[in-house]
Amino acid sequence: MDKKILEKRAERLRELMIHEDMDVLVAISPENVLYSTGAYIITQRSLRDRLEISIIPKDGDAVFVVCGIEESLARDESWIEDIRPYVEFKQSPIKFLADVLAEKGLDRKKVGIELHYLSSTFYKELIGYLPNTKFHECRGIFDKVRMIKEPQEIELLAQAAKASRKAVDAAFLTARPKDTERHLSTEIMTNLMKQGLDWSFMVLGTGRRTMLTHSTPSNIPMEPGDIIRVDFGGILSGYQSDLARTAVIGKPSTVQADTFKKLANIQREVIESMEIGVRFCDVYNKCKELFEKNHLPFSMPHIGHGLGVDLHEHPIINPLNEEELQENMIINVEPLVIYGGYAYHIEDLIQITPNGPKILTESEMSEEIPVIS
Question: Where is each Peptidase M24 domain found (predicted)?
Answer without folding.
Answer: 156-353
